[in-house]
Input
Amino acid sequence: MGRWEPGARERLMEAALQLYATRGYEATTAADIAQAVGLTERTFFRHFADKREVIFGGQELFEQLFVDGIAAAPDAAPMDMVASALGAAEEFFPDERRPHSRLRQTIIDAHPGLQERELLKLTAVAASLAEALRRRGVPEPQATLAAESGMTVFGISFRQWLADGEQRSIGDIQRGVLEELRALTHPAGRS
Amino acid sequence: MGRWEPGARERLMEAALQLYATRGYEATTAADIAQAVGLTERTFFRHFADKREVIFGGQELFEQLFVDGIAAAPDAAPMDMVASALGAAEEFFPDERRPHSRLRQTIIDAHPGLQERELLKLTAVAASLAEALRRRGVPEPQATLAAESGMTVFGISFRQWLADGEQRSIGDIQRGVLEELRALTHPAGRS
Output
């Protein structure tokens, strides 16, 4: 390891997103990103395995927060444990992060390979949530149903949180979407 | 186009699955598949764009059946329209197709690239279902919630249909899983 650069990871990440957005993801190299913040390519690779990891590097933490949320949820019906775990999104996506997340999503949306990577990651999170529910004693198919429904609620809510003009927190949006799901699947809601 | 080979497509497909299962997907070439049923590589490429399409070539029809199911569903609550569309799975996966589908899934499960392809395809089907629901007047987020919940039900049911010793039809399994989803998200089910 070379010398430590204070805040290097965050500076590289911000510079990368700006370059991906303006110059294009494919056209931007690790050296470009490092140069933009006065660091060397070698420093870039001390912080990120490759230029894709700049976009997806936070997802292990995101997944762990959801899984920990299931482990820590009070004993309750499976969907209530999932709702409790979804609260982690509020910690991970505070409102001050919204501009950063919007820029990141713009880059992903412009690049099919990145969209696929994001989709695969969300699927992996759903599988980890289902495993966490089984550890809490939830049988199948309920564990997978609840985990995948939870990720459906998160995915729809996250998109809405990024929408132009949206002011609500991700937590408020998620609570509303979860209620919509309950209403949609409630037998009394049949017409 | 060269001369027409009766049943060539089906023979190529069966030979391909057998070779993918025994020799491995990566190690099998289009020429191997064609040779196994006494046809030329050129004939293979008249029927399939590449060796991956042998596995996924039926999915356009599968997607169209679901979308047509939404268009043809009686006016009802969104999840009931989705339940009606899921009936297409019974047409696409009759019980006599179960051994073929099991072999196909074994090959996909052994190969991450094919798993990704399948996942992306199911996501595309969910997006098409949501679009079909919007055409029926279902607003957002209900359309996407109902479509993705429907694909969750299908995915869990399809896996169960393939399980060793499973005797029920995919339709019977889907109806059971859909009831589990309704129970799981029903407020009265909270404990």
Q: What stands out?
A: Chain A has eleven helices and no strands. Chain A has a mean pLDDT of 91.
